[in-house]
Amino acid sequence: MTDIQATDAASGAGGTAEDDAFRVIEARELCLTFETNDGPVHALSNVDLTVDRGEFVSFIGPSGCGKTTLLRVIADLEKATAGTISVNGMSPEEARRKRAYGYVFQAAALYPWRTIAGNVALPLEIMGLDKAERAERIARNLELVNLSGFERKFPWQLSGGMQQRASIARALAVEPDLLLMDEPFGALDEIVRDHLNEQLNQLWDRTNKTVIFVTHSIPEAVFLSTKIVVMSPRPGRVHDVIDCNLPRERTLDIRETPEFLEIAHRVRDGLRAGHAYDDE
Amino acid sequence: MSRSVPLTVLAGGIALLAGLAIQIISADAVWSPSYGLAAALLASSYLLAIVWRHGAAAAFLLLAIVHLAAIPLIGHIGHGEGEMGPAYWALLISGWLAAWTSVTRLTAAARSVPPSARQAINLLIPFVFGVWLILIWEAVTRGAGIPQVLLPAPSAVWAKLIASLPILWADFVQTFMKAVIAGYVLGCGIGFGTAILVDRSPFLKRGLMPVGNMVSALPIIGVAPIMVMWFGFDWQSKAAVVVIMTFFPMLVNTLEGLSASSAMQRDLMRTYAASYSQTLLKLRLVEALPFIFNALKINSTLALIGAIVSEFFGTPIVGMGFRISTEVGRMNVDMVWAEIAVAALAGSAFYGSLVLIERTLTFWHPSNR
Ligand SMILES: Nc1ncnc2c1ncn2[C@@H]1O[C@H](COP(=O)(O)OP(=O)(O)O)[C@@H](O)[C@H]1O
Ligand SMILES: [Mg+2]
């Protein structure tokens, strides 16, 4: 029961060339140990994970179980100490250099000296897009997150929820096929969060992007995901992978249905078991 | 307790009454219409301060009356230079306390006016403070007959300043426009460039920082004569001293500023696969701006001091430092003060314009918005 392989839940281990074309993330026996003054911290231990194109995968687990670290390894912000990982069939570094993903941090991390439009423009400037193309993408993506009309405001003039939406627009403007989101709604209140969850679900449904989403919240994970990766701490590892086959188009009402509650129940059990294992 | 009379009003009123009493009873008191006028204006200002306490209008009226009173207060000295007695000093203290009261009232009123007016009041307050500093200086030096060599009256300094404008201008051009500006631009520029290099190379950081530290600790008195030997008597050697003085503060501050951006902001640039120079220009240098301006401000003061002092160690017969050292020798202290006034003015204008540029460039910084 140590490592239920994420692969089993997906299209089956091994995989033909055809499968590989749809494979976005492929991690095998991934380990990451931080050397700290208090000794080594095993943030990730033998993590196996596959994510296929168009999936919405959530990482859920208590804090310190390595969710952020795993996301950062995928993003090449952290290097694994052992094991293999590929992103779009490349090394994470190559994928990063090809701007394969958009990353949404836990905090909005907008630059205070740039307007909202200027912040969304930042990655586009770095990519060397011309002015017309930038303007078009800024308008389209701010529209997508319901921020049209706030282009000329500075981040500190906006509420936390609006800032986080702006940071999502900034990640989307790069037009990546893969979105990595680290507890993007963690600091927001319930109502704003529900609303953004709905918007994110619609966005994913419409654009057919692959999303990897870190969260603390069981309802959020079940509502958004096609696959939920339950993680447990010390050492950080994948405890269980739960499929979540709700219809692609969802409204928040779905949270009242027996199917939803059944999956939520399984996730909760998984989280409990992860803890129990930890206590032994 | 809001009905009670503020301490400054109480003390000022007592000083006014005491001054009048002494004036009447003492035999050697100097009499003039100015004395009476000043006393009357101050008396009305205290009355006003007691009956009409709140609001910007009351504060401004008080301010106007107090400054009106300052004119006869200084005018009275003309009737007996160096012979002012306790009656006059009491009146002067009363005037100062009245001004203090008016500023306190103005500060209180500033809370209830629109922001633009508040800004004007915030500028007015240090101005009033400066005016009274000069008024008291003038009154004490002339009223008590303090020797010119010890401390000339502001009016004497002003007269000298107006009379010697061509000389002062020539000195200003030599010291400020040439030595300070050239040295400042070079020193800050090299410091900045070095910081960028050091930031990129850990080897340079370890090798250069101790050397830079040592250079910054060099005493200007030792360096200046050597620079004269290297670069000659003219402004170039002074500029060299300024370069040495301004280099290190810029290096240290820029280095600190370059590491001011948060890890998350740098990670963000990494996810965009931004190049080194893109990260530098679009993130790290912007975050470093407050630190860089800090150095620019410190250096504006250092540069002026450095250029003036290094002129004490050999110079052509022009320059602010040269003038100060020679005129002190000739006991022309008013000329020294005129140079000091020019230096203070130039220094403040330099500093002030840096602050203005900083405000527009770092409007986004939490301390400015
Ligand atoms: N840079 C780091 N240096 C040392 N330890 C770290 C570092 N980043 C994370 N860790 C440790 O790794 C573990 C997993 O962290 P993280 O991935 O942030 O957990 P989560 O996101 O699930 O809360 C934690 O114990 C954390 O303290
Ligand atoms: Mg985390």
Please, could you describe this protein's structure?
The complex is a heterodimer of chains A (280) and B (369). With 280 residues, chain A is α/β, with parallel strands linked by helices. Chain A has two domains: 2-100 and 177-273, P-loop containing nucleotide triphosphate hydrolases (Rossmann fold, 3-Layer(aba) Sandwich), CATH 3.40.50.300; 111-175, no CATH class. Chain A has ten helices and nine strands. In chain A, a hairpin with a 4-residue loop joins strand 8 and strand 9. The longest helix of chain A has 22 residues, at 258-279. Chain B is mostly helical and 369 residues long. Chain B has two domains: 7-146; 162-368, MetI-like (MetI-like fold). In chain B, helix 3 (56-75) packs antiparallel against helix 4 (86-110), helix 7 (165-200) packs parallel to helix 10 and helix 7 crosses helix 13. Chain B starts with 6 loop residues before the first helix and ends in an 8-residue tail after the last helix. In chain B, 38% of the residues are buried. The mean pLDDT of chain B is 90. The interface between A and B is medium-sized, with 24 and 21 residues. Magnesium ion binds next to helix 3 of chain A.
Largest sheet of chain B: none
Supply the number of structural domains of chain B.
2
| Number of structurally distinct domains of chain A | 2
* Number of helical regions of chain B: 14
Instruction: Determine the strand fraction of chain B and express it as a percent band.
Output: under 5%
The percentage helix of chain B is over 70%
Count of helix runs of chain A? 10
Our Rg estimate of chain A from Cα atoms comes to 19 Å
